[in-house]
Amino acid sequence: MTPPPSPAVEGAAATASAGHGGRRRHVLLFPLPYQGHINPMFRLAGVLHARGCAVTVFHTRFNGPDAARHPEYRFVPVPDGMSGAPSVAIDSVVKHILALNDACEAAFRERLAAVLAEYSRDAVTCLVADAHLLRMVEVARRLAVPTLVLRTGSAACFAGFVAYPLLCDKGYLPVQESSELDRPVRELPPYRVRDLMHMGSDGHELVCELLARAVAAVKLSSGLILNTFDALEAPELAKLRRDLAVPVFDIGPLHKFSPAAGGSLLRENRSCLEWLDVQAPESVLYVSFGSLACMGGRELDETAWGIAGSGVPFLWVVRPGLVCGRAPDEPARLPEGFEAATRGRGVVVEWAPQEEVLRHRAVGGFWTHNGWNSTAESVCEGVPMLCRPHFGDQMGNARYVEHVWKVGFEVGDGGELERGTVEAAIRRLMTGSDGAEMRTRARELKMAAAECTGNAGSSELAIVRMVTHILSL
Which family, according to UniProt (predicted)? Predict the structure, then answer.
């Protein structure tokens, strides 16, 4: 349930509605069109709308939102001139993000100018763009629209973005030999080289460009918005505030302030909640590897037989496109005999209402790819994690889960999975003494998140500062 706003928040909302002859101030948003970026942006939209701002969402044709699910917002399509979706390989995703910026630039300039003419310039407060949309930030600045940037990952991850040129100068990157992957990054503890965003020598320049653009977008803006909270990343937030010359607003976890935003690109199967209702408390392992990560056919089979052999009740999200090299809409086929071996003990769905699943009393562990949204949601519900990161910021998130917050551990250490390893890891988390200790620490972080999002908590106060800042631009 979304907490009611405090008097300070209600005051900010009244300010947003009262200015300019009683007209609501307009905030313009532009999300990066990937699931893990769309959801936080729509949650931010909910926060701003609840506090008195009118919301206009610019969006691409690729992964465009369903406007009918958000009648309170206005939607402005921006032609992207691109056909098809990228493959889930990290180099393909990076190239797609860079190309999308260039493809949308001229069309966004035209659409933004039209909106400014319609609303009147003084009614528009700012544009909030995803950190990976530098070209949109530049367009807005040329049209004299103030900007803020939403970074949908952790504070630690963005600190890595800022430090990336230094890390390259010091020889950490690009990675030349696999033996270098476990080298500690002394400038960014507890990271090792393998925990940084990298794609080897061939993709090094692409990653450098992607991260440099994100940092440039923030430095051009009037503020950085992060979906994190002080109790989770206080040292990392302090470092960003020292290193950046713009205000930093740690307003997360956003899902605690803004209800489900209807931004899912896949249809949720809610019948799994009824199955969870009849399971014992903290007995079920929830398994989901997000909307983009994929695995080989052999890894899928070893994962399946490891789950089967563990004897633990499970809810497993096996979405279309989960197996690498197959079409995005092609169902992933589990090995023959798996259903019979697990009948009555588990449920397999193509997509699940994850927040409700993690909140459910029956769920005692989460096997995750460690995307930031999934990691933060698990932390906030007090659910310990098995970690199997695939790309991007996921390795760094998993490192924090295991070595800083101590609420989970990595499965397979980045190598190939074997069913015996999977079995042992599941049992350790769900029934072992280690798992019990991790569960206790996870409950402590859940309480800390509740305090941050409660009345006069650090995240709520950051929202008040953010809204006040936006209205002053």
Answer: Belongs to the UDP-glycosyltransferase family.
